[in-house]
Amino acid sequence: MSGSPPRYDLVSLNVFRVVAQERNVTRAARLCHLAVSAVSKRISELEDQVGVPLFIRHARGMGLTPAGETMLHYVERVHDDLRHMQLELNEHGSGATGHIRLQAITSALTNHLTPDLASFMGLYPRVDFDIEERVGGSIVQAVAEGRADVGIVAADTAALDLETFAYRRERLVVIAAADHPLAGHKRVSFAATLDHEFIGPHVESSMNVLLSRQAALLERSIRQRVRISSFEAMCRLAAIRLGLCVLPESIVRPYLKPMKLVALELDEAWASRAIVVVVRRYSALSPVAKAFVGHLRS
User: Fold this and answer.
1) H-type alpha helices, the chain
2) Are residues 189 and 146 in the same domain?
3) Under 8 Å between Cβ of 244 and 198
4) Distances (CA, A) of 35 to 11, 12, 26
5) Same domain, 192 and 224
6) SS3 breakdown of the chain: % helix, strand, coil, rounded to 5?
């Protein structure tokens, strides 16, 4: 059997897509600027090529067969890819060199990514970015579904079938008010912190997943008094003794002195947390996205 891919006519695939959307050959012919007979002929030729019926014909129009539904899924993807290709080629023509859709967890975006983005954009001044802050699981899903080109997540986030590359490490510390009962300790175990109330992150965040998992391993639960997404807000609430919080050391350092907080070393192996880059398939990335991933890895 030949390893070469089947040769589909792009015009016929687009005709199929429009007919599938309109469920009517006459309307599809008008939208495609073709005669009705030409549309019917292209659909028949496509069905002959794939070897199965793609439509169910009835008096009120046309419906997709299961094979037609499958084909529509892939034709939509091809149509989308071609549209994005043309957009990027147009950008080349106007002097830009590409567009990257990036999603990252808060700690990476706040801390590590800022200088890396600045240096990359200095090297590639004609590359544009769409950047979104998301929780780890949502980022993985977005990359897997093609809604983001590159994601930055904690290494303990389930990465599905994505390709991952090492990026940075961050040290997690326990943040407490200066007059908190634990404030006099330089180092503290996670088990010891569980005797106190916590200010927790968003329930779907990678930090919450990590802390909940570690508490479960100790057969303990976290006494979560408040949940809030903002790192700064977590620190402010810790300063008024509403609880402890666990955050990356580099992010909370600017808040310690002005808010009268202390950072306690978390005496756990998992407190050194790896941050990784995730992509659907590195080989399929655009040249500028590949360059960006390479920049992050360096």
Assistant:
1) 10-22, 25-32, 36-50, 66-93, 106-107, 113-123, 136-144, 190-193, 206-217, 231-239, 249-259, 287-297
2) no
3) yes
4) 14, 13, 8
5) yes
6) 50, 25, 30
Gap between the Cα atoms of 135 and 133, Å rounded? 7
Q: Do residues 126 and 95 touch, judged by C-beta distance below 8 A?
A: yes
Integer Cα distance of 92 and 94 in angstroms:
5
Mean pLDDT of 74-87: 83
Which pLDDT belongs to residue 97?
67
Residues 106 and 234 in one domain: no
Q: Residue 140 half-sphere exposure, CB side, CA atoms within 13 Å?
A: 19
For residue 16, which phi and psi values (nearest 5 degrees)? -60, -45
102, part of any domain = yes
Q: Name the pLDDT band for 227 (thresholds 50, 70, 90).
A: very high
Question: Helices 25-32 and 36-50 meet at what angle, rounded to 10?
Answer: 100
Residue 130 domain-assigned (yes or no): yes
State pTM to two decimals.
0.66
Calculate the average pLDDT of the chain: 91
1 domain residue, yes or no:
no
Considering the domain architecture, whether residues 285 and 261 belong to the same structural domain is answered as no
Please report how many Cα atoms fall inside a 13 Å half-sphere around the Cα of residue 13, on the Cβ side: 18
108 neighbors 152 (Cβ within 8 angstroms):
yes
Residue-number span of the structural domain to which 205 is assigned = 171-271
Residue 240 has pLDDT above 70, yes or no: yes
DSSP state of 109: I
Count up the domains in the chain and report the number: 3
